[in-house]
Every structure is written in C-alpha cells, then in structure tokens.
Amino acid sequence: MSYPEDLRAQVERYLEALRFSEEAGTAKLEEAMRYSLLAGGKRVRPVLALATAAAIGVEPSSMLPFAAALELIHTYSLIHDDLPAMDDDDLRRGRPTCHVAFGEDVAILAGDGLYAEAFKHLLTDQPGESANVLRAAAELASATGVSGMVGGQYLDVAASAPAGAEGLRHLHALKTGRLIRASVECVLLLDGSQEPATIVYFNNFASELGVLFQIVDDILDVTGSQEALGKASGSDERLGKRTYVTEFGLDGARKLAKESHARASDALNSAAPHDPGQLHQITDFIAYRSH
Amino acid sequence: MSYPEDLRAQVERYLEALRFSEEAGTAKLEEAMRYSLLAGGKRVRPVLALATAAAIGVEPSSMLPFAAALELIHTYSLIHDDLPAMDDDDLRRGRPTCHVAFGEDVAILAGDGLYAEAFKHLLTDQPGESANVLRAAAELASATGVSGMVGGQYLDVAASAPAGAEGLRHLHALKTGRLIRASVECVLLLDGSQEPATIVYFNNFASELGVLFQIVDDILDVTGSQEALGKASGSDERLGKRTYVTEFGLDGARKLAKESHARASDALNSAAPHDPGQLHQITDFIAYRSH
Question: Are A186 and A136 in contact (CB under 8 A)?
Fold first, then answer.
C-alpha cells in the first residue's frame, strides 16, 4: 500500500533543519536530542497533520511548525518511556536508546528539552491567528499532560487502569490516542474556519485511528521481528503488560483491528473532507503495516 | 525584613486549589505532583510575578494562572534535578524527595506532568489578549528549554560550561536566571502596554536578581543548616560542583552578593515602576535570606 511519502519527506527535511542549541556548551545535549529525533520512522503524527491540512484545502507546509512539534513530543515520550526506571529498553528505531548512547542524565534532559523546544517552536513559528495558535497549543498541552500522554504512561507503569477491555482501551486512549487525535484536531483549530460538527467528525476519525494504531502495535509486538520493528519484540510480554493480544488473543486482536479499520474509514468518509486521499492512505498503512 | 506575605498567601491558596487528574487511575500521580508542589517555600517566582504586576499598576490576581505555571515548572525542575541519575538528593523542602516517596518512574512522570499542566493552565486560563498570552508562553518555553533551564542543568551535570567566573555566571544565567527573568518579563508581555525600553530596564533588574539569588544560594549551601535549608547542606561540595564559593571563597562570594544586591536595587529604580515597594522587598529578602 502507498503512504504519503512526499509529506514524510517534507517533515524529514524540516526536522533535519531544526537546531536547538545556541552554544558549544550544550552541543552534546542537542546531539542527544537529534540522535533520537532523526532516527527515521514513518513520522505518522506529523504526516497525519499535514494530510489533515490537505484534506481541508489548506497548504500542508503551513502546518510544518506544528507537525514538527508533534514529532519532538513523540520523541521525548519515547526517550522517557525507554529509561531504566520505566520500560528499560535498550533498542529503539533500530539503534541503542538515548540513555544507552548518552547516559541516563542526558537522556532525561534530552526528553525535557525536546518537550520545551516543541512548545517554543509551535508558539513562535506557527503561522495563523494568535487565538487559533493559542487554542491549538492548549489542546496539545492537554493531550500530553495528566489527562493525556503522561497520564496514560502512568496508568501503564503503575498498572492502575481499570480491568478488562474498557480499561485497556482507556489506557491507550490517553497514552497514544490523545496525541494522535491532537495531530488532526489541532490542524482544524489552527485553521479556525471549520464548523464544530466537522471537528467532531474528524475527532471521531482520529480517535478510532488511535485505537487501530494501538491494536496493530500490540499485534506486531508479538508477530514482528526485532529487525522489522527496530526495537525488541516481545517486550510487552517481558514487562507483563496487558495488551489487546493478552486480552483477546492474536486472532481476537486481528478481528478487532479489522473492525477498527472499517470504523476509522467510515468516520473519515463521514467527515467528508475536501481531499481525503492521503488520510485514507495513512489509515490503510496503519492497519496493514509490518513495523 | 518583610516579604510580600499577602502575595505568597494568594499564590498558596491558588496552588492548593489546582487539580490535575480527572480520574481514579491517575490519582496517585496527582498525589506525587501535589506532594512536591505543596511542600511550602517562599514561592519566589510567582510572588515576583504578582509583585511585577502591582509595580506596573495591574491587578496582581489577574496574573495568577501565569504565576502558578511558574511554580509548577520550578517544582518539575526540582523533581528531575533530584533524581538518582542527576543530583541524587534525598531531601527537599524538608521532606523526602519525590522519587524517594513515590518511586523513580512516578517522579519522572510527575515532573513531565507538572510541565505539561503548567502550559495547559497558562494557555487555557490566563486572561489577556491572545497575542500577548502567546508571546508570554513562547518566552516561558524558551526560558525553560535548551537556551534556558534545561540547557543550564545540562551544563551543570555535564560540567561543560566554560571555565572561570564568566562560565559559572553563564551556567546559572541559564539554569536559574532565565526562569527568574521570565517571572518578570512575561508579566510585561501579558500586560502588553509597556514601552520596549521599560521592558529592557525590568529585564536588567530581573537578570541581576537571578545572579543575586544564585550567589546567595551558593553561600547558604556552605553556611546553612539542613534544618533551615530543608535539603542537605554541603551538597555542592559533595557533587564537586563549581559555585561562587569555590570560585571566589566565602568572603569573596559575600562581597559579590553585596555588589549584586546594589546593582539589582539600582536597576529596579531605573525601571521606575509605578509601585516598586514589593519588588524591593523581594530583592532584599533574596539578599538577606537564611534559607
């Protein structure tokens, strides 16, 4: 299946051109940040943001500062999740994790720095009316706080989500879902011209896309090879984590993925975007990816 | 000497009323965040922000969301600085540090969460014109990123600041100075009605106040007791850190503090604020404090 490689290439070039350090003393910190940021990957969140722009008839490149902020934040979350005190992972995106390569203290600060620079970049460089940028940045902060990414990661490490499928779904809605939804929603907020009903339709699509992403992620952790994943496979089992596979079995999880894929595609059609092509490509890629 | 206790009490009440978690699953994470946030302290940064508002004739309470964001961010930086991989401190504000009380994984996430909630709160609840809030939030992100707090902490843990007094001054300008300056500058940006020249004068004052704060901090680390400081004294020596005392001796550092105090007071007078009383009180407190 195809993937919007042109959008990915735009994101990649933009990320490569970003600089964070203004002096020699912090050059090594910047190196650690760029080491983790520029390790490749499909750039799903920023590509989703640019494709959403295209879908509503907005020039995708106008959303690059926001899109970059998404990837900076995603990278920060990976660095902190991989720390010895958290999931203690040694391999990520096919290379040693940040704390293995640069030390634990530098990795903590690289994560902290990426989060700060994400907001600095969004608040400084994103074009658009101030009120719209403010609204989008507030949503991004919320999506990455206690009611979003950080809260979801806490539910994960503390194993404090409610039992059963509903609890699992909720954990992932926070841990990965909110940021994926924000990748779509914030573009609509930045544009500022969409009807509230349209935003609801897009949010339904993006929420379902987040669910689909996680189910496939859990399946790949079992069926994927370390080479394809770029990280240790079977790490969920090693950490004793609840996943869609432990909860429903492999066949059950595949069935759920298929249903979620259908729902996401339907929700996208209901949003009736101007040009949905690339959003469908991303949806199909997430459903059928092998890594 | 007096301190603007009325402003501190306002800040304290406001911080106590803040809630971060919307559900039972993350209640313990919120508990860790509030444990570190509500451990007392002089609340220098938020009080400085409110006193700056009063100094330019703006109602201080209108700046409470921004002031709270400052203290959330300061608390996050303390939690991460205290981690075993960083300064490895067991005691802070007179009680066990966050990772000692809640575990290292929860402490990392409590810090991450406080930082996110700071921006969420500022971007959502701070009154003012959108363009002004945006400008202040961008400055706050910059002050806490690689060219500010995180970069300064990196210079500290990696011992990569240039040698000599200039390097030491630069390290602290990033690590603590930028956030102290932002406590003043962002209030002017939020107000939006000050002349650029006035902002420069206030920034000169706030920069010098940051220097003064750090010199006195270094002196107290040597001369203060654990009881008064609420953290282990002598920790700079234990960690082999360069300080104003190691660089200039105790008497030399005291002389520098006196000079810095005079410069800060002069700079404040040059800024010619409408009502400078509380800013002078804070400056004197920082110079003469015993903890």
Answer: yes
Q: What is the dihedral of CA B116, B119, B125, B129, to 10 degrees?
A: -160
Choose between A36 and A289: higher pLDDT.
A36
Give the pairing type, strands A95-96 and B95-96. unpaired
pLDDT single digits (tens) B23-33: 999 999 999 99
- Say what the pTM is: 0.96
Are B32 and B106 in contact by the 8 Å Cβ rule? The answer is: yes
CA-based nearest distance B127→chain A, Å: 12
For residues A88 and A78, give the distance between their C-alpha atoms in angstroms, rounded to a whole number: 11
Within 10 A of A142 (CB to CB), how many other CB atoms are there? 21
Q: How many domains does chain A have?
A: 1
Confidence at A287, pLDDT banded by 50, 70, 90: very high
- By the CB < 8 Å criterion, does B88 face chain A? no
Q: Which of A123, A132, A142, A160 to mutate to test the interface with B (most CBs of B within 10 A)?
A: A123
pLDDT at A254 over 90: yes
Name the residue range of residue A94's domain. Answer: 5-288
pLDDT at A1 over 80: no
Quick check: A164 pLDDT over 90?
no
Shortest CA gap A9–chain B (Å): 26
- CB contact under 8 Å between B154 and A29, yes or no, is yes
Going by C-beta distance under 8 Å and a sequence separation of 6 or more, which residues neighbour residue B287? B212, B216, B257, B258, B260, B261, B264
CATH number, domain containing residue A219: 1.10.600.10
Q: Which residue has the tokens 């007392």?
A: B40
Structure confidence by residue, pLDDT tens digits, B46-73: 999 999 999 999 999 999 999 999 999 9
Q: Are B186 and B66 in contact (CB under 8 A)?
A: yes
Q: In chain B, which residues have their Cβ closer than 8 Å to the Cβ of A80?
A: 108-109, 112
